Task: structure prediction
Amino acid sequence: MSQIEAWTATKLVHWISNDSKKRGLSPPHRLEAELLVANALNISRLDIYLLHDKPCSTNERSAVRNLYKRRIQGEPIAYILGESDFWTLNLNVGAGVLIPRQDTETLVEVAIDKISSVFQSESPVTILELGTGSGAIPLALCHECKNLEIVTTDISIEAMAFARQNFNKYDSIIAGRQNLIHPVICDKFEGILAKHQFDIIISNPPYIATEELEILQIEVKDWEPELAFQAQNSGLSFYEYFNSLAHLYLKPEGYLIFEHGYSQTQAIKSLFNNKLTFQSSHKDLCHNDRVMVFQNTRYHESSKI
Result:
């Protein structure tokens, strides 16, 4: 009688990878399979292959199966693992917070370039971030730059809880580079006094139009917080808001830097009047328009609240 082949970690990875393809789950299938198996077995991805001939116990197979059931239901891999990589950071994430995307690293790159090339004094560079989510953007900035003072906001209590976890997780980097982060729960500018003007306002705001929601991947539309990615007025409502008020919160010559949808460049430009001046547009790694920079070059004292 032939012996039944044992279920090893490598065999589990192979089976999950093939099954997820058949089910039409989002790629990368093998990477996700490795992450699920490694997490369930509490081993590294390398150990999966170093221990290629070690049979898994019944409890281990059950742990893998339970995680994969969650993935089959559409739950994002980052929520299942409780973490997501962004920049050089590993961030805590879960239900109630937007999972940081690689596209947003373009926003970070543009901001870092502006900080390093424009602000040369010994005074702290003051930054206001609207919609911090997991805290990915301020943490990436603090990882690369020194002497920043960042006020970071979000309307979501759940999201801010994850951001605070991540700020605590990387406190040594924040403090070690003489940076400060002040988390504030508020809606856009409503919790910020206009007399506190900033060198930079930065944001990855919601910009998915309501009519586009149905074409989103199930991982996004059914699991991630709609408040963090959906916007009214064809996805432009936050940019209309920035045009109306951002100049009040910027220092003279200060910068507004934000992420946007790849097809929104011209529509956004047409929204902005003479309160802020368009400076530049930047593409992401897929060569899509992704980030715009405006400057407060037409500042007037009378514009203060």
Notes: The chain has two domains: 9-73, 96-303. The longest helix spans residues 58-72. The first strand starts at residue 83 and ends at 86. Confidence is low (pLDDT under 50) at residues 300-305.
